[in-house]
Amino acid sequence: MKQNIYDDPEFFSGYKALREQAHNYNVLLEQPALRALLPDLAGKTVLDAGCGAGDLSAYLTARGATTHGIDLSEKMLALAQKRYPELSFERLALEDIASLEESYDLVVSSLAFHYIEDYTGLIASIRERLKPGGELLFSIEHPLTVADKQRRYWVKEADGTDHYAFDDYQEEGRRESRWFVDGVVTFHRTFSSLLRPFLNAGWTLEAVEEPVPSEEAIMQMPRIARELRKPSFLIVKAKRFLRVLGEGVDHPLSLYNQGKGREDNG
Amino acid sequence: MKQNIYDDPEFFSGYKALREQAHNYNVLLEQPALRALLPDLAGKTVLDAGCGAGDLSAYLTARGATTHGIDLSEKMLALAQKRYPELSFERLALEDIASLEESYDLVVSSLAFHYIEDYTGLIASIRERLKPGGELLFSIEHPLTVADKQRRYWVKEADGTDHYAFDDYQEEGRRESRWFVDGVVTFHRTFSSLLRPFLNAGWTLEAVEEPVPSEEAIMQMPRIARELRKPSFLIVKAKRFLRVLGEGVDHPLSLYNQGKGREDNG
Known about the structure:
Two copies of one chain form a homodimer.
Chain A: H1 9-20, H2 25-36, E1 45-49, H3 55-62, E2 66-71, H4 74-83, E3 88-91, E4 104-110, H5 119-129, E5 130-141, H6 143-146, E6 154-156, E7 162-166, E8 173-179, E9 181-188, H7 191-195, E10 203-209, H8 215-220, E11 233-240, H9 252-258
Parallel strand pairs in A: 1-2, 1-4, 2-3, 4-5
Antiparallel strand pairs in A: 5-11, 6-7, 8-9, 10-11
């Protein structure tokens, strides 16, 4: 089922107000960490998967990229199109990326993949839309944050201190929480499950980061200091790699040594 | 400082008794997961880094490998030598791996790296002792387990349920805990810090696993079911890869295409 919580009027107005605050977790933590891992963008074609109100697409365009933004939410897309009328946006679920015809130098996605039930299928369909050597860069809710099914979050102790409640880690799948409205569904995956698709020969894993707030960010928004105790975001960067047609997949070293590597553009 | 807690008489006797139990976390969870990731061992030379009482060395030897076990603890080595007199053991700290002269097809390490302060240096020195294409396979305490500086572990709630206390994640470094004796020192590293050395062109990351207990293991030791809620172990496997001499490091794809890759055996 494709979730379209962003078109829920109450969710939409709450989310919009949050993102319009000068200081929020996106502006102070997630976006700086994601953007620090962007490759050179001049002349590149970029798919912005889960583009929301289009701010990341606009940032990429300003640095020389040609972007195409997709999102399932009509309301978010209307906002994006109004703000950035010169940019390309399309209503499309991330689950339907395979229906796109173009190939991209880069696929970026900011905090959208945790809404998708079939993560492995999503990564495979993104790979098919990347040019050989193209890259995927995405942020996702950190497994530490979403594991606990009861969503107890920060738990107070008798002496006034607190800690983060952790549980249910190996039980992957659907989690419900309240975020502006009840019943927002995200999908919990372990670290190892999030990385597994990128450890095959079809990809080279390039970065795994857990953003740390800067001192300046903490001054601007003191409660973001909690990120030092419990991370909210995970960022992954990977490059589409050679794949050998035929039986099995060879290690790149043997490909090089034997000179038998072949590109699979399929 | 090289920690030699295994030679503390009280620690040693407690640890020895634990490992001699038919059902413990090593036998039921960590060793099966580690061993499942072993490559073909026939004719291979293997360094067992932190070999303890030598059981893993013996397992590897039975599968055709020639092993060399190193450990800092005299008591553990005496036990290993007594149990497996035909195998090769040497008293050497993991911090001094660079002083070994042989190169190995495989370096394995079971639950030793969290005792080492300079993790990045350790991984670099292991790389130098691996043959090109050689592999490193190790288990380590999971960052989730060791992050909390107060070591609150499982916290009871008013209604009788419990959860695991999580905290201090981004504050890497020294942690003290009680395990048989007070003051056992381990070093906390984040998930991203543990993987970072392997995301350079000098390595290919092959596996990242968080072992899940089998139904049989849970039947034999019911409390190991808690591993479904909070993992204790992380397992990493990586292969020593090509490195280009001179300026910068190229992506394997460009090496292949340009035919300019060179092996660095240094």
